[in-house]
Design brief:
Number of helices: 7
Shape: globular
Largest sheet: 7 strands, mixed
Number of strands: 7
Structural class: alpha/beta
Strand content: 15-25%
Strand order of the largest sheet: 2-1-5-4-3-6-7
Order of helices and strands: HEEHEHEHHEHEEH
Helix content: 40-55%
């Protein structure tokens, strides 16, 4: 019994130590320009249209990126909510960024959820996890609120009043 407890403690300690070292490397790399994304980074939409990193972040004055994966049940719930949402927001561009999945898997999820054309045309594939690294994403679903490409707010839920509050507060 004691061996199992000791094994669990060692495992958990090693896990947290490895996570901590990863974060230290990230900070070090970012400071020393080893970790840099620029306008040459390309993403693809479901229709195979390319979109650059810069365009994705600052296509309009206000941008909301919804980061998701089809294997995440909460992400699918949020997509269903977005599909039912009829309101639009002036000057706010929504992108639904799939993290790490291939186009076929994403298309199947879109088909299963019966997503509207408005959502489908704004689904972006981030196969390499660029946004995960750039914005230190540790869980999904995640919404990123951006103004002119700069992060204002990060959250795991969204509603009309939150959108209005975040973007109004910034003005």
């Amino acid at each position: 019994m004691k061996v199992k407890k000791i094994s669990k403690i060692i495992f958990i300690s090693l896990f947290f130590l490895s996570c901590n070292r990863e974060n230290e490397f990230y900070e070090y790399s970012k400071e020393n320009k080893f970790y840099e994304y620029n306008s040459e980074n390309q993403f693809y939409k479901l229709d195979d249209e390319k979109i650059s990193y810069d365009e994705l972040l600052s296509h309009s004055p206000y941008t909301i990126l919804f980061l998701w994966a089809s294997s995440c049940s909460y992400c699918l719930i949020e997509l269903k909510k977005a599909n039912r949402r009829k309101e639009s927001f002036k000057d706010v561009q929504f992108y639904y960024v799939n993290l790490g999945e291939n186009k076929y898997t994403v298309e199947k999820a879109v088909e299963l959820l019966k997503l509207s054309l408005n959502i489908k045309k704004n689904i972006v594939l981030d196969r390499e996890g660029i946004l995960i690294k750039e914005f230190n994403i540790v869980s999904i679903p995640t919404y990123l609120f951006l103004k002119d490409g700069n992060l204002l707010y990060k959250t795991h839920f969204i509603n009309r009043s939150l959108i209005e509050e975040i973007f109004k507060k910034d003005e």
